[in-house]
Amino acid sequence: MTRIRSIVRGVGSYLPQRVLTNDELAKTVDTSDEWIQQRVGIKERHIAAEGEFTSDLAVAAARAALDNAGLTPDDIDLIIVATTTPDYTFPAAATLVQMKLGMRHGFAFDLQAVCSGFVYAVTTADSHIKNGLARRVLVIGAETFTRLLDWTDRTTCVLFGDGAGAMILEGVELAEDEPERGILASALRSDGQHWDKLYVDGGPSSTGTAGHVHMQGPEVFRHAVGKITDVVYATLEKSGYTVADLDWFVPHQANKRIIDGAGAKLGLPTEKVVTTVDIHANTSAASVPLALSVAVADGRIKPGDLVMLEAMGGGFTWGASLIRW
Ligand code: ACO
Q1: Same domain, yes or no: 167 and 49
Q2: Do 78 and 125 touch, CB atoms closer than 8 A?
Q3: For this structure, is 22 an active site residue?
Q4: What is the mean pLDDT of the chain?
Q5: Nearest CA to ligand 1 atom 1
């Protein structure tokens, strides 16, 4: 008997050129580099240029992932873009990415789960592969999240950045005696009763505007560590592995204190935790694939490694995915 598994063929990322440091931000809003680093561990973030849209960031990350995989757009059947900041209310950013890659076949759609978007998209891609709807899926997390910020609100504007990351998943048939690889297990959760703890006060159906980010920071913090660790344990349980088996933990990069808290609660050594929040800030759905790309490019994540992805965000939504690289 054969088993279809979704394996990782390649990863890639893109960051806009412009870097905004905490010190620069402190010139326009009442904050300081010290406060930001101490509370959330962020030093700087990238900001998309005027006229540079989410689909542009996504295409750049997609091209990097295709190069990394040695594939072309002709080899892709499905594009999923996880984003909260699409270029337009519709069509989906994913169809714009499809057009910009010159892809005239297959299908493409966006997925909205805010900061958990990439983990949701990876899980959705895995299901599509296992159901035979697609063989190779380009999964992208892309955001111009800073366009949702009120730059006079110091409680939110210091936290976020722009960027994109991509991963190509491919369905392969494992022979009976072949060891498991690719996506081994995932778990997704949401609880809409927390919607107003982290939300944007606008939308096509309510105000007709894009709106700005609002957050009850301490409430988000209070829920984050428990929800993250619960879903990581649920994923491990499904796969039969334990925390001790993990080679790498690649969490959503929202906040160094949340990452450290989750790592400590899981009992993970800090050297197994991939952290890029200091240089990327919170890029929402882009943060996990951006961190993955860094750790693959610098040689930390290698074929055969056991990698746990995790994210939590607005909704609340949260989820985790375990991958044998
Ligand atoms: N610079 C300086 N002072 C600030 C800033 C800032 N950027 N932001 C808030 N403050 C002030 C507040 O005004 C307040 O001042 P006051 O006491 O005079 O009223 C003081 O700092 C403390 O405010 P709190 O909100 O209680 O600060 P807290 O210690 O909770 O830290 C923070 C705020 C860092 C946002 C924290 O709640 C947190 O980390 N929450 C998680 C939020 C998060 O990570 N969100 C990302 C999106 S969600 C996700 O992706 C999981």
Answers
A1: yes
A2: yes
A3: no
A4: 97
A5: 31
